[in-house]
Amino acid sequence: MINRRKLILTSFCTGLSLFSYNRILAQEAVKKTSSGKTLHNISSYRYQKWENHFKSIIDGAILSDTKSKCLHFWIGKNNFYKIYPTSVPLTPELTRTGYTKIIKKVVGPDWRPTESMRKRDPQLPEYMPPGPDNPLGTHALYLSWPNYRIHGTSDTRKIGRQSSSGCIGLYNEHIEEIFNLVKIGIPVRLI
Asked: What three-state secondary structure class fits 50?
């Protein structure tokens, strides 16, 4: 019996091979690092041209598509390109769109829920140190917008879903990969 998710993922990766060798390698890497995990909404991932969003990708650029729940990452003259599944904000009211940039990179981020988060869920702690239960995961990229981040997650069930209070969440292994490649100051666009 054919596993439906595996069939969809295989068809998707095969379709991307029409675009370029680098792009299919990126998809294979995402598939390998996500083995054993459920990828939600995989059929809505689609190729994006960086030129439609950024002036340059020499130092890197990130596009987060909140509708398809995926993050596009480009870097360098050779058009290195990867697509990653993400979690996105719970509601349109929590979703900020537009251009921003990376202003800070943190390994082992701590977490302080905002006042509005604590109003929605009074059981949230005031502070959570780095660690396996921290909702920001192992790495975080802080955006120039206050309280917005691209970060890992300790709860992988959230990936592919509307589950955040505004941030973009990734599997920990994916944020670590991006974290090691991005420079402070690179442009980020949320659509």
From this structure: helix
